[in-house]
């Protein structure tokens, strides 16, 4: 059985950053990833200094290539299906879909989050002409006729006001959800049209939006837009391992990635079940790595 100081579950920005820092600290690290990262559908990644405009798969390949320099880091392109506690030896046993087993002293969960969209067909356009982060993709959509799709009034206002910085040609689509008169007036003062009627379908070609059709048959021409999804953890290791979760669904930590379960750490979007930029996730991964290495150092000194 392969034995590691730490296994990092997930090789997105958070997991790669964690692994790099721990590898440079001469720790024996196993990195596991199945290629299901959330940003794989988008054309380019933005906002990461020195890597602005890099395609997500290229960003990942560059990160994995950097890890190869450190002989103590092993990468496994597979899915972890089970993590159990070896109470006697104070370790964890990790099993993969290939029925391989690995032993580790510490675990970092960096599996990220996935989206559920208010309109199913958004998935056909997501990453090409419909996005969830204006900071990531607003520049590319600037001055185009856009939609904002949201069903919660707080999010309707927040996202519409935010996207207004990049394009003044906006239509808010609530997909049947109600919006208060006060909020509607606030947006209409900026000439932002509000469509409360449910959407029948999105119309476009090869992922690029052209029109939105409503149940009444009315259509509006749009070139893309932004959507507020619901996010969830795709893998339930947080719950299975007994990590404490607060009332908002976020994992309780000490601010350095340590969870309430000894030897289990968390990094990136997995912690709060909210989207994050590559830059922020990488920073959180670095921080968590420092916590892991500090604990290994103090426990073994």
Automatic annotation (TrEMBL):
- Span of domain FAD/NAD(P)-binding: 4-149, 173-276
Q: What is this protein called?
A: NAD(P)/FAD-dependent oxidoreductase
Q: Name the residues that span the membrane.
A: none
Name the domain of life. Answer: Bacteria
- Which species is this UniProt entry from? Bacillus spongiae
Cite the entry's keywords alphabetically: Flavoprotein, Oxidoreductase
**Subunit structure as annotated in this protein's UniProt entry:** Homodimer.
Recorded hits in InterPro entries, A to Z, give:
FAD/NAD-bd_sf, FAD/NAD-binding_dom, Ferredoxin-NADP_redctase_2
């Amino acid at each position: 059985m392969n034995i590691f100081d730490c296994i990092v579950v997930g090789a997105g920005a958070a997991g790669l950053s964690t692994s790099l820092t721990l590898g440079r600290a001469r720790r024996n690290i196993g990195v596991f990833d199945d290629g299901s990262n959330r940003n794989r559908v988008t054309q380019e990644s933005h906002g990461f200094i020195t890597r602005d405009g890099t395609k997500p798969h290229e960003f990942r390949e560059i990160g994995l290539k950097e890890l190869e320099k450190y002989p103590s880091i092993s990468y496994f392109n597979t899915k972890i299906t089970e993590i159990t506690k070896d109470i006697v030896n104070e370790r964890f046993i990790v099993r993969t879909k290939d029925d391989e087993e690995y032993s580790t002293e510490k675990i970092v969960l960096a599996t990220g989050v996935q989206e559920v969209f208010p309109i199913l067909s958004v998935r056909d356009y997501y990453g090409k002409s419909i996005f969830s982060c204006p900071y990531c993709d607003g520049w590319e959509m600037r001055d185009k006729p856009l939609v904002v799709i949201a069903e919660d009034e707080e999010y309707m206002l927040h996202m519409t006001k935010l996207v207004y910085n990049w394009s003044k040609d906006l239509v808010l689509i609530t997909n049947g959800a109600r919006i208060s008169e006060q909020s509607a007036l606030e947006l209409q003062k900026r000439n932002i049209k509000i469509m409360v009627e449910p959407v029948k379908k999105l119309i476009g070609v090869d992922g690029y939006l052209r029109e939105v059709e409503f149940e009444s048959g009315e259509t509006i021409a749009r070139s893309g837009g932004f959507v507020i999804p619901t996010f969830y953890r795709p893998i339930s290791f947080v719950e299975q391992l007994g990590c404490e979760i607060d009332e908002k669904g976020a994992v309780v930590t000490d601010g350095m990635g340590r969870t309430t379960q000894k030897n289990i750490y968390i990094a990136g979007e997995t912690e709060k079940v909210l989207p994050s930029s590559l830059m922020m996730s990488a920073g959180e991964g670095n921080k968590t790595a420092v916590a892991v290495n500090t604990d290994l150092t103090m426990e073994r000194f």
